[in-house]
Specification:
With about 325 residues, the protein is of the alpha+beta class. It is built from eight helices and nine strands. A hairpin with a 2-residue loop joins strand 4 and strand 5.
């Protein structure tokens, strides 16, 4: 479980300084970003006093209505979006809510989970000095990291889908071969990919709304480079949403095709058993007739009665087989 932590990020001497377990009585000088991970009630109340804004509770942050996730409070932007987490750790992916409170002088993030973009963001700030200029640029760079991570996850999901498709439709020299994987295993893998795609769809929808809200209310005074970055991010979100929709369509096709192949294979097996039962039914009838214990049976005393019965049973099986082949049923 993620431990409670309050971190501050400040720009000093052209470098980004990170301070863990920051004091809750006053903000250090030059702080641009205040990050709350699973904050306690005391930490949350202290931050609210410092910035003069009520931070949404977990229930408020989880509200579905857009008005409850995107609003203005005393000139500050309060925005909540879902971020996919758990993929890099090999756990079941979830869409964890992250709340961004953007004031004129400070960015505050409140989160329960620890997504990978947050862990990698500090390195990005060190590489790009322009990110450390103002809270808005920190916000944009952080959201850009989240979008980049969503793109990586989508690429991974597409690769997984292609592997499942290759196993489901595998063939050798143009001839279908028996699948090496259990269809149930393939269906479960498709289910996991679909769950991940659904979480990404939810995250991208929230990110797109949040960027649109930021464009309407928080771009005043932003440099041209930041505006171009914002436009690029909005385009990336739209492209990833379309990519996710295409992935969902491919998932549906592979799943339906897999069920169709499984049904076809079952029908083929039933067909083989049906044909076998039809072929062996006439010989069984002949054997049953000559296996009856009636006293008067002329064939019992014939010298060629036994060979005749064998020939009759073979012929009764060959004739139906020939008819099936002639009609294209085999």
């Amino acid at each position: 479980m993620l431990a409670a932590m309050l971190r501050t990020f400040s720009a000093r001497d052209g470098h980004l300084h990170v301070e863990d377990d920051a004091p809750t009585d006053a903000l250090p000088l030059g702080v641009l970003w205040l990050d709350l991970q699973r904050p306690t009630q005391h930490e949350e109340a202290a931050v609210e006093r410092m910035i003069g804004i009520d931070i949404p509770t977990r229930a408020e942050a989880a509200a579905i209505g857009e008005s409850a996730r995107l609003y203005l409070d005393n000139g500050s932007l309060v925005m909540t979006a879902a971020v996919v987490t758990g993929v890099s750790e090999g756990r079941r992916p979830i869409a964890a809510d992250v709340t961004f409170v953007l004031t004129p002088s400070l960015l505050v993030t409140v989160r329960e989970a620890d997504p990978l973009p947050f862990r990698a963001f500090v390195q990005k700030c060190q590489r790009e000095p322009a990110v450390r200029e103002r809270p808005e640029t920190v916000f944009l760079a952080l959201v850009e990291s989240i979008i980049d991570r969503a793109a990586e996850i989508l690429d991974g999901a597409q690769a997984d889908l292609e592997r499942v498709s290759a196993e489901a439709f595998a063939d050798v020299e143009g001839k279908p071969r028996r699948r090496t994987s259990d269809p149930r295993v393939l269906v479960k893998r498709l289910g996991r990919i679909n769950a991940l795609a659904a979480r990404l769809r939810e995250s991208l929808l929230g990110l797109g709304r949040m960027l649109a809200f930021f464009r309407q209310n928080g771009v005043e005074g932003l440099p041209d480079s930041a505006m171009r970055r914002l436009a690029s991010m909005e385009g990336d979100v739209r492209a990833l949403s379309e990519y996710d929709a295409q992935l969902a369509t491919e998932l549906s096709f592979v799943l339906e095709a897999l069920f169709g192949l499984t049904n076809a294979e079952q029908n083929r097996i039933i067909r083989v058993f049906t044909i076998a039962s039809v072929l062996f039914l006439p010989p069984t009838l002949v054997g049953t007739v000559y296996g009856m214990n009636f006293e008067v049976m002329p064939e019992l005393h014939w010298a060629f009665g036994y060979p005749m019965a064998l020939v009759l049973m073979v012929a009764s099986a060959v004739v139906p087989y020939w008819l099936f082949r002639r009609n294209g049923w085999l």
